[in-house]
Amino acid sequence: MPIKYTKAVEEDLTVINSIEPEKISEIIEILQDLKSQTIKPSEIRNSIGNTVSEDQARSLVRAAVNFQVAIQKNPPPTSKELFEEIGDEFKITQEHLTLLKHTIDSEPIILAAKAYSLSYDHPVVFLSVRSKVDIRPVFGVDRTKVVGSITIPTLTIEYGEQSSRNRRELSLAMDEKDLKELADTLRDIVNKIKICNASEAKVDGVSYFVAGEEEL
After folding, report:
1. Is 163 helix (H, G, I), strand (E, B) or coil?
2. What confidence tens digit (pLDDT) does each residue in 81-119 have?
């Protein structure tokens, strides 16, 4: 299965190739010690943040998670295919290929990739929303003058597949009661997320995050 190399992936690999060779074994050791203590990309980045720069840590974790997501797909590329392609496509040293391989195969990256995939494992996902308020005139019986107006709020939701350009829109005309019900429901969802994130609701030893909370 061929890997799609976007400009962002190329930039990440260039940054990874700038990591000082003497720091590679230290990074690998940190990731091995981290094991399954976290599934959050931000915490994985922080764990190696004292060893490499912030940009290097972000590029390494982001590239590793993205490649691990590809590996977990069906049919997946083999590790051999993956690293042969990377070696052929980019001028990256053998030392840095070894670092990338160990990072991709590390337990926290495998779990972070699984969590990231699960958060978007739906036929369609929400992409954006916008609102519009129309004020329409009401004409008199003889249609010679405007005798009033009506306000019509419209909510347009854009949705589609996360990795596809096939985007669709759904426009909903709503009245004041509808808007209040929607606002109450959204507040309820936000409140539930806060409860789940509260320290007393956490299970000891379990790492988790809300879909969309963690950026790669």
Report:
1. coil
2. 777 777 667 778 888 888 988 898 899 999 889 888 887
Tokens linked to 206? 């379990």
Q: Which residue is associated with the tokens 């290097």?
A: 56
Q: Could you identify the residue written with the tokens 């759904």?
A: 170
The per-residue pLDDT for 203 is 60
Per-residue pLDDT band at 5 (split at 50, 70, 90): low
Contact 174, 154 (CB under 8 A): yes
To the nearest 10 degrees (0 to 180), the angle between helices 94-104 and 79-89 is: 140
Give the Å distances, CA to CA, from 45 to 23, 27, 31, 68, 127: 15, 11, 10, 16, 27
What residue ranges do the domains of the chain occupy? Answer: 7-119, 122-174
Alpha-carbon distance of 160 to 63, in angstroms, equals 24
Mean pLDDT (whole number) for 71-89? 71
pLDDT tens digit sequence for 38-69 = 888 888 999 999 999 999 999 999 999 988 88
pTM: 0.69
Residue 132's pLDDT is 94
The 10 Å Cβ neighbour count of residue 20 is: 10
Distance of CA 65 to the CA centre of its chain: 11
d(CA 139, CA 148): 7
Distance CA 35, CA 156 (A): 43
Beta strand extents in the chain (DSSP E only): 125-139, 146-160, 167-173
Maximum C-alpha span of the chain: 87
User: Could you give phi then psi for residue 170, rounded to 5 degrees?
Assistant: -130, 115
